[in-house]
Each structure stands twice: as C-alpha cells, then as structure tokens.
Sequence to fold (123 residues):
Amino acid sequence: MPRLAVLAPVLAAALASSAGVGQAASTSTLITAHFRVTLTERCAEGTVGCANVVYQGVNRRTGQGIVLRGRHLVRPCADGVTPCGVAGYLFRSGRYRYRVSESGTLRVTRGATVLVHEQGRWR
Fold:
C-alpha cells in the first residue's frame, strides 16, 4: 500500500484540526494527466494573499506523494499595488518550485529546468 494512502486520513485530520479559530479550511483538487493535487487554504474566507496553503500532490501512476506548505500568488489591481485576486499558488521544496495556476496549470521546476507542465481540471 502506498505510504501516502496510509497517511491520508491522518493528514486530513491534522489539517482540519489546525485550521484554527476564525480560519476556514477550503479545499480544491486539480486532476492532470499524471497528478492529483489537493490544495487546502487555511486562511479566513476571502483572504487575498494567504500564506498558509497546503499542497498535497500524488503521482496517479505510482501513488507517491508530497506535502508542501506555500502561499497565494497575488494578481495586482490596475494601480499595480493593491492586491486584486489570486493568480495561483506557489510551493517550494529546496530547489524545486511547484506552481499551480487558477486556470489549472501545474508547473514544477528545478532552477530554470521545467520538469512538469500539465493542464488539468479543478474538481
């Protein structure tokens, strides 16, 4: 049995219990050809610039997974300063960067090298 499958209920309980008072945990899942990515935002609803987002990614073929913490990528308003909305999400693990866009693109890079670039659908 894949290790993540055993840990999934524990992770879900930990995420739910650590959302905190006054914070809602909202979850979205992106399905691409090779990955299932679940994002859990642990900030008050409507927060632009949430710095407490959890990425739970699973390779759909192997079942291997990774859990990361990250933040919103914010789209500025016309004045170039005021945050207007969420453009996506950014997560880091050493030299690896995981970006998930609002339009459903998963992009994983190591330095300037693109390792994964897949379009998916939100569920």
The beta strands are 24-31, 35-43, 53-59, 65-76, 83-93, 96-101, 105-110, 113-119, 121-122. Confidence is low (pLDDT under 50) at residues 1-21.
